Amino acid sequence: MVDAAGKFEMRDAIYRAAEPDISIIIVSYNTRIMTLECIRSVLAQTTTALYEVIVFDNASTDGSPEAIRANFPQVELIASQENLGFAGANNMAAMRARGRRFLLLNPDTLILDHAIDRLHEFADANPRFGIWGGRTLLSDGSLNPGSCWGDATLWSIFCLATGLTNLMRSSAVFNPEGYGGWKRDSIRAVDIVTGCFLLIDRELWEQLDGFDPEFFMYGEEADLCRRARKLGACPTITPAATIIHYGGASEPDHAEYRIKVFAGRLTLLRRHHSAATILAGKTLYMMLPLLRLLAYGTAGVVSGRNDFREKARNWRHFWQYRQRWVNGWSDVGVRSARGNPRNNVSNETGAAEHPSGDAQSRSRHQG
What does DSSP say about strands 109-111 and 197-201: parallel, antiparallel, or unpaired? Predict the structure, then answer.
């Protein structure tokens, strides 16, 4: 009986001699066990598309590079001595890629039902889209809506800041970034395909010069999709390609996670909007933690509930370190993200009051 690694070896001679259809790029950071499972699922579930796998390890300290090298010698491993962030790591890996399309895949994902083959087929049938994505589920099989997002607008930021998004997640009006009410069960053009499962034409990637390196992490795919749409691309989701995305594997700290997500959000705001919109949006973003701190702090005192007190503490930390996010990604923010005072980890599930109410995707542009 041949295991997944053996199948990979048998196919190796075939696709190494030809141009792969897809270069699968996985960026890992202290996710050893999940990264190995992700690779296994890729090998087991991808049977028709010709592909190569490139793993860029962002200076993990959990033995990830050694484990990947030992278990999957056919995988191209780039073991960085420095944490380059999600954008920088993908840009570096893409320089080594040979495929005509690049698939950006999170390490905390599992491929289901030949999802990469299905996404490849969808792209072949709809080449003009330029960027394609699929449907993501949580580990229990329920929907993880973080496979795609709508653009942030002043209205969506207002809804997020005032809590309207959290109160009415299923509303397309009050949760426009999360496409409230849509279960990702139909083919649909979207503003942003999340970087946890994003397929892009090599030519388009090169036209865009990849991710903007100013985004250390979070927000980079939102910026990429915005720029791609200006060139005529039409990012689109298909439910035929479905994966599990656990979310938050390298980020179990709520407050630190929020800081990174908002650094990405403010960078997006600064990059793509007028001075008046930037001022208004920044004001709303600064309102958000103060309103949460007031609400959870008061609820904690009145009810005596520890969970409310803990949420208030996390929002207080977020506000105290606002210099790391209030102007977008900066040198101080990047230095902290590479080795932050709270172990550089954080939990994506509900951590940033995300419009989806669920783990990110890495999800990533908003978490």
Answer: unpaired
Quote the DSSP letter at residue 21. S
pLDDT digit string (tens) for 243-274?
A: 999 975 555 567 888 999 999 999 999 999 99
Query: Phi/psi of residue 110, each to 5°?
Result: -130, 130
- Helices 32-45, 4-16: crossing angle, 10 deg rounding: 60
Q: Which amino acid is at 154?
A: L
> Closest Cα partner for 148 from 193, 200, 199?
193
Percentage with pLDDT > 90 across the chain: 80
In angstroms, the CA 32 to CA 42 distance is: 15
36 is written with which tokens? Answer: 């190995």
CA distance 367 to 362: 5
Give, for 189, the enclosing helix (H) or strand (E): strand 188-189
pLDDT of the residue at 11:
52
Distance CA(150)–CA(258), nearest Å, equals 19
**For the chain, how far is it from start to end, CA to CA, in angstroms?**
41
Q: Which residue has the tokens 């407050």?
A: 255
CA angle 306/309/314 to nearest 5° reads: 125
Q: Which amino acid is at 40?
A: R
- Look up the pTM and report it: 0.87
Kindly write down the DSSP assignment for every residue of 247-281, as one continuous string: --TT---HHHHHHHHHHHHHHHHHHHS-HHHHHHH
